Amino acid sequence: MRTSRLEAFSDGVLAIIITIMVLELKVPEDHHIHDLVRTTGLGLLSYLLSFIYVGIYWNNHHHMFHVVRRVSGGVLWANLALLLCLSLFPFTTAWVDESRLARDPVVLYGLNFLAAAIAYFILQKVIIRAEGPDSALRRALGTDFKGKASPVVYLIGIIAALTLGTAGVVIALASYVVVAIVWIVPDRRIARLVDESEQG
Question: Which of 72, 107, 79 is nearest to 92 (CA)?
Fold first, then answer.
């Protein structure tokens, strides 16, 4: 099976996720900047972080499927598992905002990021298994340090939030931001392989 239908479906789901998240933002009742900050400030920040995460997944998903030759049933299900995790972003983002950064919502927010990272890792492994030992994706990933380190950073943040009170919540949020910064540049190994395949 070609990858085009899977990519089109995934793009549509991610577009809907972004749309749902922005609809959660509250419009200020008055017309001044301080009303915007008071009513929407925190929600806008959590929306921006979640938007960046969706953008990161979309970007890397797009690059990854440029080097995938065939889609098996396992790849379809693994991709759906990833989309399930990403579709929870609007809920966890809204809860973080509504709770004003309470501990449990921040922990669930981190667990949502962790679940998405694990689902993406599984998707990569299923693709490599379907394409065999000579998979282009396997060659491009190499040791995949970023992919393996990100869940560890999420866990550090989650554990900090659970054990260190308000300071732990700050550490957790900082951890989520750090991972986003690390991933905001698309995976260069895959991008390089895509460029080589297009030139060849």
Answer: 107
Q: Which domain holds residue 10?
A: 4-199
For residue 31, how many other CB atoms are within 10 A of its CB?
7
- Domain total in the chain: 1
Q: Is 166 exposed, middle or buried (0-12, 13-18, 19+ CB in 10 A)?
A: exposed
CA dihedral 131, 149, 189, 10 (to 10 degrees): 60
Task: Tell me the C-alpha distance between 65 and 127, whole Å.
Answer: 9
- CA-nearest of 13, 9, 128 to 74 is 128
**What are 22-64's pLDDT values in tens digits?**
887 777 777 767 666 676 667 788 999 999 999 999 998 988 8
